[in-house]
Specification:
single chain, 302 residues, alpha/beta, Nucleotidyltransferase, domain 5, 2 domains, 5-stranded mixed beta sheet, 10 strands, 22% strand
Length: 302
């Protein structure tokens, strides 16, 4: 029996599976996030190296290392970093690397042409054209954008709430939620907190669920922020689809992945934006985790 390893490495979580030649998952393991842009290169290597050891330790008898014929990494962060990491491995069979967006696309289109949007802490767009080539857009990280992401929504809402607290905006529930989120009461203290917090990007993104909940309760400023953030993501996606599919014969499959895009408020906004802009897509709501996409890609590559 031959075996194959699949790894989904993101900023929040790293998941691994060991699959036999019959396609069965015989061992799996989960670890902390491994995006080198977030945790640093040394920590990223340590997380994935330790997770690989733990996965193989959980392999059922009579597993043997010489039966491991391939390892595929689908990873967030620098592609060059992960190629270098993969090249350093021995006894893992044929080792390949690809972006962590590929499993999400597989879940969305099942190998057919189409696209997927993902929004968690960050965001990205990935598409498969009519020739089967995969294209990516966005995914630049919190310092450079990622519209529609938890960070982008959180940043917009925090900025709005701070202006309210300074007296330059009509008071809304957002300022109340920001005080609850930080445990602080005034704008200067909250501003200092975000500038001093080492993991400020994570804390800002963590405000997004409150923004969505507040929007769902009828808060107009929160609703406006959600629409503006998602609107920029859709603008990127529309540009990509217009280039790759200039005259689609039917609506394109468009997967929505991650807790931000699958929230009821986001779904309503996305449908309205798509209809207003006559964007020819059919939304598919992805509830399966990315590691399931990894599993499907391993099966297709056998």
């Amino acid at each position: 029996m031959n075996y194959h390893i699949g790894v989904d490495g993101g900023g929040t979580k790293t998941e691994l599976i060991l699959v036999d030649d019959a396609g069965r998952i015989v061992a799996q393991h989960a670890a902390s996030g491994c995006n080198p842009s977030h945790v640093g290169p040394e920590r990223a290597r340590a997380v994935v190296g330790g997770a690989l050891d733990a996965l193989l330790a959980a392999a059922p008898a009579p597993f043997a290392r010489n039966a491991l014929v391939s390892t595929q990494f689908f990873m967030a962060g620098s592609p060059a970093f992960w190629r270098e990491f993969a090249a350093s491995l021995t006894d893992f069979g044929e080792v390949k690397t690809a972006p962590d967006s590929w499993p999400v696309l597989e879940l969305a289109t099942e190998g057919a042409p189409g696209l997927a949007l993902h929004a968690g802490t960050g965001s990205f767009i990935v598409a498969r054209d009519l020739d089967g080539k995969i294209h990516s857009a966005g995914g630049l990280g919190w310092k450079l954008g990622d519209p529609g992401s938890g960070f982008d929504m959180g940043r917009r809402a925090i900025a709005r709430a701070l202006l309210e607290m300074q007296g330059w905006g009509e008071p809304s529930v957002l300022s109340t939620e920001l005080r609850a989120h930080t445990g602080l009461q005034d704008a200067p203290a909250i501003t200092r907190y975000f500038y001093a917090e080492p993991a400020a990007n994570v804390q800002i993104a963590a405000f997004a669920p409150r923004v969505l909940a507040t929007a769902a309760s009828g808060c107009l400023p929160a609703q406006t922020i959600v629409v503006a953030s998602l609107g920029e993501l859709v603008t990127q996606a529309r540009f990509l689809t217009a280039k790759l599919f200039p005259a689609p014969a039917a609506p394109l499959a468009c997967g929505l992945s991650g807790p931000i895009l699958n929230h009821a408020v986001s779904v309503y906004a996305l449908k309205a934006i798509a209809e207003t802009n006559q964007w020819p897509v059919e939304f598919r709501f992805l509830t399966a985790p990315p590691i399931e996409g990894v599993h499907r890609l391993l099966l297709a590559a056998r």
